[in-house]
Amino acid sequence: MRVTAAVVDELGGPFRIEDLELDEPGPGEALVRVVATGICHTDEITRHGDLPMPFPSVLGHEGAGVVEAVGDGVASVRPGDHVVIGWPSCGTCRNCRDGEPRYCARLDEALAGGGRLLGPRAGQSALRRPDGSPVHSHFFGQSSFSTYALTWADSLVVVPATAPLELLGPLACGISTGAGAVFNTLRPRTGSSLVVYGVGAVGLAAVMAARLSPATTIIAVDRHASRLALAAEFGATHAIDAGETDPVAEIQRICGGPADYALECTGVIDVVRQAADSVGMLGTCVLIGGAPAGAEFSLDHLTTLWGKRVVGTLGGSGRSDVLIGALVELHRQGRFPFDRLVRFYEPADIDSALADSRSGEVLKPVLRMKH
Question: Residue 55: which of 29, 16, 25, 87 has the closest Cα?
C-alpha cells in the first residue's frame, strides 16, 4: 500500500517527505494507521549514528493510532482498536520470559536492525520506494514517521477509545521512560529524597511520577528557568539552576546530606558524575539520558564502593501494557498531566520541530499525521 513517510537517506542526512510502498501484514503482524507520533531525542541521535540503524530508513518510535488490518494468527488486537505502539521483543529469551522485554537479548536487532525481528519475513524491510529499492523499516519495531506503520501485533498496547489518541504516542518511549524509572526502577521509599537532573520531557515525567510516590523531597536540576518552573508545578519541592549553583553542594544543603536517589536525564557526561555524586551510601543513581556512542564516565571508587548503586534503565522497564495502561489512566484522572508538555506539528515541519526541541522552546514535539 502507498504511505507517506519522512525518509533519512544517509548518516546525518535531512528528513525528506516521500511516498513509499508498505507491505500488507503477514503472520503475527498488524497494520496501524498512525494518528500521531512523538519526536524523541533518540530519533535525532540515531540519524547521527549513535544507534546503528542502516540507511535509507524511516525513523519514529512513539506512534499511536488505529489498527487497520492484522495478519494470520493475530488474536491480541483487531481492526478498529486504538493502540500505542510499544517496543518489540523476541518473547522467548530469559529477560522477556522474566517480564522485562525492554531488555530483550535481541534488543539491538529489535530496535535498529532495519527490518522485521520475527516471523517468516524476519530481517526483511517492509518499506520500498516506487522503483522497488528498499528503505529500512521497523525502527523500534514501528518506523512511525509515516502515515501507516507495520508492526508486531504483540507489541501493541490497546487503549480506551475515549483516550486522546493524538497525545498518547510519547507514552511509548520518552514519557514512560521518565515515569517508569521512578515507578519500576527506583520505587522510592517513604520519606525519601529524589533528584532529577535535566527536566525536559523525560525528567518532567519523572517529577510527575515522583509526586505520586512516597518521596517527600523532589529536587529538579536544570539550566532553563522555564523548565524549573514547570517542575515546581508538577511536584518538585525544590529547584536548582545548575548555571548558577553547584547542584551537588546545594543538594547536600537541602537534604542535610546526600540524596537517596538521583535520575540523570541529560546524557551529558559531566552531569552523570554530578548525579552519581549526589547520592551517598546505599543511594541509587539511575542513568536515563542517551550519551553519544562510545561515551565513558568515571566515578570515585571509594564512595561508590560503600553501597552506592549506579544502574541504567531503558524505556521505563517492565511491560509496555502495564506501564502505558497505568499512565493513560493516571492522565484521565488528572494526576499525570503530560499533555502540557506537547506541541503539535505537521510532518512537513519535522525540521522545525527538531530545532524547537534542541533549543528548549518545546518539550515534546508530536507530529500529527494527515490522511
Answer: 16
Reduce the DSSP state of residue 218 to 3 states and report it: strand
Torsion of CA 87, 92, 97, 100, to 10 degrees: -30
According to DSSP H, which parts of the chain are helical? 41-47, 94-97, 107-112, 165-168, 174-180, 201-211, 225-234, 247-255, 269-277, 301-305, 320-332, 350-359
Does the pLDDT of residue 208 top 90, yes or no? Answer: yes
Amino acid letter, 80: G
Q: What is the CA radius of gyration of the chain?
A: 20
Query: Which grid cell is 354?
Result: 527538531
DSSP H or E run through 193: strand 193-197
- DSSP-assigned letter for residue 290: -
All 3 cell numbers of residue 79?
A: 481492526
Q: H/E element holding 5?
A: strand 2-8
- Ordered domains of the chain (ranges, CATH): 2-173+317-368 (3.90.180.10), 177-312 (3.40.50.720)
CA 136/CA 181 separation, integer angstroms: 30
Per-residue pLDDT tens digits for 245-289: 999 999 999 999 999 999 999 999 999 999 999 999 999 999 999
CA distance 88 to 301: 37
Cβ(146)–Cβ(58) below 8 Å: yes
Do residues 285 and 274 touch, judged by C-beta distance below 8 A?
Answer: no
* pLDDT the model gives residue 191: 98
| The three cell numbers locating residue 159 | 487503549
- Residue 184 is given by DSSP the state I
pTM: 0.95
Selection from 89, 95, 83, 84 nearest residue 28 by Cα: 89
Record the cell numbers describing residue 303, joined without a space. Answer: 564512595
User: Which triple of cell numbers denotes residue 224?
Assistant: 532553563
pLDDT of 362 reads 92
Amino acid of residue 301: H
- Give the whole-angstrom CA distance, residue 249 versus residue 304: 18
What 3 state SS string does 322-365 have? HHHHHHHHHHHCCCCCHHHHEEEECHHHHHHHHHHHHHCCCCEE
Helices (H) and strands (E) in the chain, counts: 12, 18
